[in-house]
Design a protein that fits this description.
Oligomer: single chain
Strand content: under 5%
Order of helices and strands: HHHH
Number of helices: 4
Shape: elongated
Number of strands: 0
Helix content: 55-70%
Distance between the termini: 13 Å
Largest sheet: none
Structural class: mainly alpha
Radius of gyration: 20 Å
């Protein structure tokens, strides 16, 4: 019988790491759905803008700004999911020649260095959010800090995935499991 709660079977060596993985699963799933919402909103808004411009001969004033905001949010929310599974630009020509144990330790060291970069980015983006908070976007009455909030969330979420890599715990899948043919939900 298959468990309906895979997050309860998180494979970690300690209760702290299991709780961390369960929390990460909740954050990942929330981020996963927020990415879908941002991409969908951007697509609908751009489509509505094209329709309004070419069919109705008018324009949606805030379409460019909002579609850019949705795009930025979608990209920055997706970055931690790439970090989680190691989908990022890297050159491993030399590291690939090293023994597996050395490669694992090198991965931990690089995750630690990247985590320090993310801590710095969290700090700097907090300052940027505070600096831009009073400034409004030109076409919508929303703070311009929304762009920097996406960076802040991305850096914090990335930091959590880097901590998991330092601990060498296997992340749980962020996307909901697909129901296979013949299975009931």
């Amino acid at each position: 019988m298959k468990s309906r709660a895979p997050w309860l079977e998180a494979h970690a060596s300690s209760p702290t790491q299991k709780r961390f993985l369960v929390a990460m699963l909740a954050i990942d799933r929330t981020s996963y759905y927020a990415i879908i919402l941002a991409m969908g909103s951007m697509t609908l808004l751009v489509s509505a803008q094209v329709f309004a411009r070419y069919v109705l001969s008018t324009s949606i004033d805030s379409a460019d700004e909002l579609s850019r905001l949705f795009f930025v949010w979608a990209i920055f929310l997706a970055i931690p999911h790439g970090i989680k599974v190691g989908i990022h630009v890297g050159i491993d020509a030399i590291a690939g020649l090293l023994p597996a144990a050395v490669q694992r330790q090198l991965t931990r060291v690089m995750a630690l260095a990247s985590a320090l970069v993310m801590v710095t980015l969290v700090w700097l983006s907090l300052g940027a959010v505070a600096d831009k908070w009073q400034q409004l976007m030109p076409t919508v009455p929303v703070t311009a800090a929304m762009f920097y909030i996406a960076v802040l969330i991305s850096a914090g979420h990335s930091l959590l995935h880097l901590i998991a890599q330092i601990w060498q715990v296997e992340p749980l899948p962020s996307a909901p499991a697909a129901i296979k043919e013949g299975e009931t939900s």
